[in-house]
Specification:
The structure is a single chain. The chain is an alpha/beta fold and 253 residues long. Helices cover 35% and strands 15% of the residues. The chain contains nine helices and ten strands. It has a six-stranded parallel β-sheet with strand order 3-2-4-1-5-8, sandwiched between helices. A two-stranded antiparallel ribbon has the order 6-7. Strand 9, helix 9 and strand 10 form a beta-alpha-beta unit.
Length: 253
């Protein structure tokens, strides 16, 4: 996914998330809309917000999760506390729910989701999908586009063609639900939250292999320009046999 780019290493996503909340919701009195995948990414965000709450660093604003699937996924995860990692086990000693905090509210019905679009107070809205290409988050983005007080904060990878990708690229106009909208809001990205390795991570992943003995490396995930760039990078590192398979091409192994 990030075979031709590198993640920023300065600062963690918890502090970065707080900076966006302060800038948008406190200083500008706007809405911070975060497109997030319902399973995994939303729970990471809730955990980060809970950490800020425990540290008394979370502003007193409403935080809405507008995704029925996110609610169900989070409820399931909470049933398996014995499987949480060591860090979460330490949190459980002082907090019986690391995904809940004051000010958090879940939106379930379509009617309540529509009402949320008219919510006039500063707030954070976490909603699916993560690329903003589908789901309720598109409605929230469309209702926020016209004001520079608002921010869309991407929390995962977005292809160039997705709505999230277009906003990240600085598009002045976007099409949502068949209508063209002028973009006045700000767009940001929590790059440190990505689950995908960057070019260095991927190169280190195979560095334990003897390049001379590797018969073939297949690159099968990512945008075409990224795959081509990463293939060149691997070849410069001494991996001579790198292949980017085309659709329906067969290889004997």
């Amino acid at each position: 996914t990030y075979g031709n780019s590198f993640h920023e290493v300065a600062g963690g996503h918890v502090d970065e998330l707080r900076r966006w909340i302060i800038d948008t919701c406190v200083h500008k009195n706007g809405k911070l809309v975060i497109p997030a995948f319902s399973v995994g990414r939303t729970q990471e965000l809730l955990y980060a917000l809970n950490q800020l709450s425990l540290e008394k660093r979370l502003p007193e604003i409403k935080i809405f999760v507008d995704s029925p699937l996110s609610l169900r996924a989070t409820s399931i995860i909470k049933q398996y506390t014995t499987d949480f990692n060591e860090r979460l086990q330490q949190v459980l000693l002082i907090d019986d729910d690391p995904f809940a905090f004051d000010g958090l509210a879940y939106i379930e019905t379509v009617e309540d989701s529509r009402k949320l679009m008219d919510y006039a107070e500063p707030c954070v809205i976490i909603s699916a999908s993560g690329t903003a290409d589908a789901g309720r988050v598109r409605h929230h983005i469309s209702s926020c586009l016209s004001s520079s007080s608002n921010t869309v904060l991407l929390a995962g990878y977005c292809s160039d063609q997705s709505l999230g990708g277009q906003l990240l690229a600085g598009a002045k106009e976007v099409e949502i639900f068949g209508e063209t909208h002028t973009v006045s809001l700000h767009t940001g990205k929590l790059a440190s939250l990505s689950a995908h390795g960057d070019a260095d991570d991927l190169t280190r992943f195979i560095a334990c292999q003897d390049a001379a003995q590797i018969k073939k490396i297949f690159l099968v995930h990512g945008e075409a320009p990224v795959l081509a760039a990463f293939a060149e990078r691997l070849q410069r590192k001494g991996y001579d046999h790198v292949e980017v398979p085309a659709m329906h091409v067969h290889y004997p192994l």
